[in-house]
Amino acid sequence: VDDNEYQMVLIAAPAMLNAGFSREVFQKWRSDERNLVALPGFGYSDGSKGMESGYRCRIRNYSLSAHADAMGLFQLVRKLRPKKVVLVHGEDRPIESLEKLLKSDLGIGVKSPRTGDKVSLSRFENHVHYPDN
Question: Do residue 16 and residue 41 come from a single domain?
């Protein structure tokens, strides 16, 4: 992914786009052609086979593991250099360790909400906002 080529990037396995947090993010970001949905694993060349119509965002397949380990995720984040990262899938202790590593070594904002926490994604401000309530 080239620097500043995309406004927002969602990395999600195709099955995760059916429901839950990844689905909500996709629904919000799908109308903007500057956004990217990166599908890990192997699939169709444009990544959109089987996707519903009506989206304008770019959808691409990448040869990433859908279940990467902490070091694989760290290397991906280091390469992409985002301003913010939200970790939403995994066991508590490994997620906490990855969060600390990303903050200390890369100096980026990282959040790891627990199941049931509300996360507000503002595409206009290009950052993640956690409501006080």
Answer: yes
* Cβ pair 82, 3 in contact under 8 A: no
The whole-angstrom separation of Cα 121 and Cα 108 is 17
pLDDT by position in tens, the chain (length 133): 444 456 788 888 888 888 888 888 888 888 888 888 888 765 544 445 556 677 888 888 877 666 778 888 888 888 878 888 888 878 889 889 999 999 999 998 888 888 778 776 654 344 444 444 3
User: How many other β-carbons are positioned within 10 Å of the β-carbon of residue 82?
Assistant: 18
- Give CA separation, 29 vs 18, 33, 57, 90, 109, in Å: 15, 9, 7, 23, 21
Enumerate residues 6+ apart whose C-beta is below 8 A from 124: none
Smallest CA-to-CA distance from 63 within 38, 86, 80, 85 is with: 38
| Per-residue confidence (pLDDT) for residue 122, from 0 to 100 | 58
Residues in the chain: 133
Q: Which two tokens stand for residue 84?
A: 């913010």
User: Same structural domain for residues 2 and 62?
Assistant: yes
Q: Please report, as a single letter, which amino acid is at residue 12.
A: A
Q: Which residues constitute the domain of residue 29?
A: 1-66
